[in-house]
Amino acid sequence: MIIRLRPEAEAAYRQHHQSVWPAVLDTITACNIRNYTIFLRDNCLFGYFEYIGQDYAADMRKMAADPATQRWWAIMEPMQEPLANRADGEWWAAMEEVFHYD
Question: Residue 39 and residue 5: Cα distance in Å, rounded?
Answer without folding.
Answer: 11
